[in-house]
Specification:
Elements (H helix, E strand, L loop, with lengths): L1 H11 L3 H26 L1 H4 L6 H33 L9
Length: about 90
C-alpha cells in the first residue's frame, strides 16, 4: 500500500492524504481476498477432531487470529502512519 501511494504521488501528483486514500482503495480487495483465503484455509484445523485435535486447533486459531489482526493493522494503522511520516514525492514526467 505504501509503495502504491508513493507511485501515485509520483505519477499523478497527488498530495500525501489523497495518495494513501487512493492506494488503500485500490489495495482493499486484494488484501481482504488474501486474508479470507488464509482464514478459510485454516478452518479445517480449527474444526479438527480426533487425535491431535487440540494442537491443530491451537495452530489454526493462532494463524486465523494473526491474519485478522494483521489485516486490521494493514487497513487502519499503515495508512494513518503513512500520513504522519511520508514525504512528499515530486511528480515524475514520463
Amino acid at each position: 500500500m505504501v509503495d502504491f501511494a508513493n507511485k501515485i504521488q509520483q505519477h499523478e501528483g497527488l498530495d500525501i492524504q489523497a495518495a494513501i486514500i487512493k492506494a488503500a482503495t485500490l489495495r482493499l480487495r486484494p488484501i481482504l481476498m488474501t486474508t479470507a483465503a488464509m482464514v478459510l484455509g485454516v478452518v479445517p484445523l480449527i474444526l479438527a477432531s480426533g487425535a491431535g485435535a487440540k494442537s491443530r486447533f491451537d495452530i489454526g486459531l493462532v494463524i486465523a487470529s494473526g491474519m485478522l489482526v494483521g489485516t486490521c493493522f494493514t487497513l487502519f494503522v499503515v495508512p494513518t502512519m503513512y500520513t504522519f511520516f511520508a514525504k512528499k514525492h515530486d511528480r515524475i514526467e514520463i
